[in-house]
Amino acid sequence: MLKLKDRTVVITGGATGIGLGLAKACGEKGARILIGEPRPAHLNEAVSLLRETGVSAHGEVVDVSSVEQLTALADVAFNTLGDVALVINNAGIGQRSGSVLDTPLEELQRVMSINFQGVWQGCQVFGRRLIKQGCEAAIYNTGSENSFFVAVHKAAAYVASKHAVLGLTDALREEMPEHITVGMIAPGFVATELIPEAMRHLGMPIDEFAAITLPQILKGERYVVSHGYNQVRIDERYRLMRDAYTRSAPRQEGDERYDVTQLRERYSK
Question: Does 245 participate in catalysis according to the annotation?
Fold first, then answer.
């Protein structure tokens, strides 16, 4: 069980929504909170709100697409606050609605620069320092239900970015030492500013989401989940995959000779 009391928790995109909800929940566990956020007004408001509740809160203006700004955030976390327990690469943006055929390349790049590149860079910058720190800690990346299936239509750049976060997180987990836990948070329909305002009241309240998900993070779960009905959509997708294999590539004796995982393990020894 990961302990947060008197340790530092770093959350990018932590001034609003899911990030702020998790910041509050971690603060209640006695953690020092360091928020990285590109909007100064939102950042100051969030830090003030946390401090009013007795949380040791700090903030830095950070655009996660900039490795230099992420490095500066890590300097504050490790050199000033110290003993980093948890890093949540949470910063993310939505997509301007549009089909795959109509979405400009610039829009794809804009979304990927934050939702995927920003997470990738956060894993690199903080992952290296957590290894060097040498004590139990965790990295969690915020994906989405869109990491598992298409929940939002006409938002393929967003969906692709969240699928990419899933792949990145699973790959990083295999590479990190045992004392670093790696997992992905998979929010469903949560009442954040990414949701159109007219629909926002229909989403799961932020505090409820944080109450469901933080215990999973502290237990070291690989996939931190919240919306039970998503199982229906996930089962639909994987049933289609299994059916495709059953029809066109059924299991046969000796087919393990093509299993890349076993081959990799055999030839890496």
Answer: no
Task: Report the sign of the C-alpha dihedral through residues 14, 15, 19, 25, in that order.
Answer: positive
Number of domains in the chain: 2
Q: Which of 158, 223, 238, 245 is catalytic?
A: 158
Residues 56, 156: one domain?
yes
User: In Å, what is the CA distance from 107 to each residue of 67, 86, 255?
Assistant: 21, 31, 42
In a domain, 168, yes or no: yes
For residue range 118-134, list pLDDT tens digits in order: 999 999 999 999 999 99
Rg (CA), the chain: 19
Strand extents, DSSP E, the chain: 8-12, 32-37, 57-61, 84-89, 137-142, 180-185, 223-224
Q: How many CB atoms lie within 10 A of CB 49?
A: 15
3 located within any domain: no
29: which residues sit within 8 A by CB, 6+ positions away?
4, 5, 214
Output the pTM of the full model.
0.96
134 and 247 share a domain? no
| Domain residue limits at 58 | 8-227
d(CA 193, CA 198): 11
pLDDT of residue 194: 84
Report the CATH number at residue 108. Answer: 3.40.50.720
